[in-house]
Amino acid sequence: MQIKKKVSLNGEWIKSGVDIHDGDIIKINDAGQPVEGEFGTRTVFRVDVGGLEKLLSWNQTSLNNCVDAFGEDSTKWVGKKVKVWILKMMVGGKLKNVVYLSAPDWTMNDDGTFKGNKDINVSSEVDYPENNLEDSPFDN
């Protein structure tokens, strides 16, 4: 019988609607880590929220958005800022807040898909410098 090592992370988990809100900009602090949970493997990142480091489990849509914006190597995402989208959705028969992440200048289409700024080429070549986010809560 094979036994898999269980990875547990130290830190405080983000609470949507409390720690983060729709439209917030947060900073990625690490390259993410796969964590086995009750419902399978999930990818957890440490993010900076108002100067505090918190844990956030990312869904596949958020991962895909960041791959499109920043490239496939998540080590290159460290220090990047992402926009928070919080939508109320039915999950397991209950209405819950679901967090999606995208590049800061992206928009969400009516069908729930995301779109990069029409003035930029969204690829792994795109870089989002710290100073182009005028209203960032991390810039003092």
Characterize this entry briefly.
This protein is mainly beta and 140 residues long.
What would you note in describing this structure?
- This protein is mainly β.
- The protein has a domain of 96 residues.
- It contains one helix and eight strands; from the N terminus they run ββββαββββ.
- The chain is 8% helix and 36% strand.
- The strands form two sheets. Strands 1, 2, 3, 4, 5 and 6 form a six-stranded antiparallel β-sheet that branches.
- It is globular.
Average pLDDT level: 83
Q: Would you list the SSEs in sequence order as H and E?
A: EEEEHEEEE
Question: What would the principal axes of the Cα set say about the shape?
Answer: globular
How much of the sequence is in beta strands?
A: 35-45%
Summarize the biggest pleated sheet: 6 strands, antiparallel
List low-pLDDT spans: 118-140
Please give the share of residues in helix: under 10%
Structural class: mainly beta
Set down the secondary structure blueprint:
Blueprint lengths: L24 E4 L4 E5 L2 E10 L2 E7 L1 H11 L10 E11 L2 E9 L4 E2 L5 E2 L25
Antiparallel strand pairs: 1-3, 1-5, 2-3, 3-4, 5-6, 7-8
Name the descriptors.
single chain; mainly beta; six-stranded antiparallel β-sheet; 1 helix
